[in-house]
TrEMBL record:
It comes from Salvator merianae. The gene is PTTG1IP. Keywords: Glycoprotein, Membrane, Signal, Transmembrane, Transmembrane helix. This is PTTG1 interacting protein. Residues 1-29 form the signal peptide. Residues 132-160 are annotated as: Disordered. The chain crosses the membrane at residues 98-123. It comes from the Eukaryota. One of its GO terms (biological process) is protein import into nucleus. InterPro entries: PSI, PTTG1IP. The lineage of its organism: Eukaryota, Metazoa, Chordata, Craniata, Vertebrata.
Length: 182
């Protein structure tokens, strides 16, 4: 349960950080992306990365200082257009290569953490439940066997006593008791 709580806390913290990041962009006046105009990306070639990336559909290639239309049919821009290490989209300080690696690592870590937490929580619940039920059942069976054994022992003793009385063999005193001189 502690692992599940930790995952919930980390997800809340991640949400809070994303919210604060968005709030920071609004407060600091980071320009919001504007939709592309026809042929709008080519006009930012040989200008700055920030000017190019104000337009959401533009891709900045830092090696050639070109502002290109982002190829929306491809998930990643082809290397013939711009190398991944030089391509910038959204923000100027992160290239596509670093973005892919970072997102893969973060996504994989989150998936593994969620899977491990779910497995730990589920397995711990199953393990905690099974021994309790099995132990209870075993204790009940042990108690029932003990009660039956005592009943059989008492029944056998009464039967033996009846037989002894019938044939006059009932032990009143032990005939072989130690004789003491008083």
């Amino acid at each position: 349960m502690g692992a599940c709580r930790a995952v919930r806390r980390s997800l809340r913290l991640l949400g809070l950080l994303l919210f604060l990041g968005a709030l920071n962009n609004v407060v600091l006046g980071v320009p919001t992306p504007v939709p592309a105009e026809q042929g709008g990306c080519q006009q930012y070639t040989n200008k700055t990365c920030e000017e190019c990336l104000k337009n959401v559909t533009c891709l900045w290639c830092s090696s050639s200082k070109k502002c290109l239309e982002y190829p929306v049919r491809n998930i990643l821009p082809p290397s013939s257009l711009c190398a991944l290490s030089s391509a910038r989209w959204g923000v100027c300080w992160v290239n596509f290569e670093a973005l892919i690696i970072t997102m893969s690592v973060v996504g994989g870590t989150i998936l593994i953490a969620v899977c491990v937490c779910c497995c730990c929580c589920c397995c711990r619940k199953k393990k905690n439940r099974k021994p309790d039920k099995e132990d209870e059942r075993a204790a009940r069976e042990r108690e029932q066997r003990r009660v039956r054994q005592e009943e059989r022992r008492a029944e056998m003793k009464s039967r033996h006593d009846e037989i002894r009385k019938k044939y006059g063999l009932f032990k009143e005193e032990n005939p072989y008791a130690r004789f003491e001189n008083n």
